[in-house]
Amino acid sequence: MKNILLPTDFSDNSWNAIQYAVQLFKDEKCNFFIMNTYTPMIYDVEYMTPGVDGFNLIDVVRKTSEEGLDKLQQKIENQFKNPNHTYRKIASFNTLINEIEELHEKYVMDLILMGTKGATGLTEILFGSNTVHIIKNAKCPVLAIPSNYAFKAPKEVLFPSDYEVSFNEKQVKLIVDIGLSNSSRINIINTTYGDDLSKNQIENKQKLDKILKNVTHLFYSVSNQSVTGAISEFQLKMQINLLVMINNKHSFFENLFFKSTISQIGFHLNVPFLVIPSGEKTN
């Protein structure tokens, strides 16, 4: 059974991500943790309404959070009734980032799935600061769903890699699971500038080929093109439904996705984006 964390702020954006989650894993046994965090600002006592103190305010906000989670669970179960799925609700007086870190100590999550506002203009930030922090530091994979992205089964998965990660089955398991459940094709692309792959890169590529043996997959080598350019071209040529990357901390990943604006990144990310922590040092 998969443990999947669904952070929510009760927005349309987070509801859209939840709909994606329950449809993507409709055929798998999952325990969904629906989580809402709240940190009400406590104002100076002299400005408070008579009879309301800081502790009462926290109680009010906690009650609102708990009632919101109750309604949300009912909504999910009404629209996506599924005997494979169970739900736990977490209302926490905490920041989202801290609660995720603390929660991981109690329950090992297989995936965090959350909405992120899609970029609609050249000057808008691609991800909110919370999403960026969680993607960079999470101990488990994170799947970010763009705002208003309607669920499509991930038949075509794009997996850029520099082959600097020594792949293992545990690390790639989620990709394999998604691929098998959706009859996906995994398109692995590597960009080069005329240099041959090193011995380590060749070995890592062979490991990946072996791990993906039960899933349809193809390897591509793209010459003299940036990673962003290669991704953009692939998205235009093929109907990519999911972008996957392994965050090995020292590769093109950080340079690519943590620039602040679309103009720096060079393309619009309009498909779900799965980031898997490497879990080990690179070669």
What is the arithmetic mean of pLDDT? 82
How large is the count of helical segments? 9
Going by CATH, the homologous superfamily of the largest domain would be HUPs
Summed up, the domain count is 2
Write out the strand line-up for the largest beta sheet, numbering strands in chain order: 3-2-1-4-5-10-9-6-7-8
Order of helices and strands: EHEHEHEHEEHEHEHEHHE
The main pleated sheet reads as:
10 strands, mixed
Into which percent range does the helicity of residues fall? Answer: 25-40%
Strand content: 15-25%
What's the count of strands?
A: 10
Radius of gyration: 20 Å
**End-to-end CA span:** 32 Å
The CATH topology label of the largest domain is Rossmann fold
Stretches where pLDDT is under 50 for at least 5 consecutive residues are 118-125, 260-267
The CATH class label of the largest domain is Alpha Beta
Question: What is the correct CATH architecture of the largest domain?
Answer: 3-Layer(aba) Sandwich
Would you give an account of this structure?
With 283 residues, this protein is α/β, with parallel strands linked by helices. The chain folds into 2 domains: 2-146, 3-Layer(aba) Sandwich (Rossmann fold); 156-277, Rossmann fold (3-Layer(aba) Sandwich), CATH 3.40.50. The protein is built from 9 helices and 10 strands. It has helices spanning 12-24, 54-79, 96-106, 129-137, 169-182, 199-211, 227-237, 252-257, 262-265; strands at residues 2-7, 30-38, 85-93, 111-116, 142-146, 156-160, 185-192, 216-223, 242-247, 273-277. Strands 3-2-1-4-5-10-9-6-7-8 form a 10-stranded mixed beta sheet, sandwiched between helices. It is elongated. It starts with a strand and ends in a 6-residue tail after the last strand. The relative contact order is 0.15. The model is unreliable at 118-125 and 260-267 (pLDDT under 50). This is Universal stress protein. It comes from Polaribacter atrinae. Residues 1-146 form the UspA domain. It holds the Pfam family Usp. InterPro entries: Universal_stress_UspA, UspA.
